[in-house]
Backbone:
């Protein structure tokens, strides 16, 4: 069974990943393609957080699973936003370079 501490630590890690990803998303919308490494790292952190939540949910009680499920939905929503943002470094102004 997942401990309260392990769930709290996972949630904190997820919130940190969300904050970092939101910063990179905002930067990506303003500065276009100048921070590709950071943007990719933010997406990787989100994916790692989703995987951590899924793994922890396997040993969680029903209340913890609900909390983890809500966090997973937040993470995946942000992942989708970041994927949909036109942030391909090879495409500028809709043209391949």
Residues:
């Amino acid at each position: 069974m997942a401990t309260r501490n392990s769930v709290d630590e996972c949630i904190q890690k997820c919130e940190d990943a969300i904050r970092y990803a939101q910063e990179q998303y905002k930067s990506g919308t303003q500065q276009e393609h100048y921070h590709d490494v950071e943007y990719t790292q933010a997406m990787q952190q989100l994916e790692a957080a989703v995987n951590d939540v899924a793994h922890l949910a396997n040993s969680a009680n029903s209340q913890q699973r609900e909390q983890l499920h809500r966090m997973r939905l937040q993470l995946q929503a942000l992942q989708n936003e970041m994927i949909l943002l036109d942030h391909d470094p090879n495409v500028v102004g809709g043209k391949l370079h």
About this structure: The first strand starts at residue 91 and ends at 92. Residues 4-88 form one domain. The chain is about 75% helix and 5% strand. The CA atoms of residues 86 and 93 lie 10 Å apart.
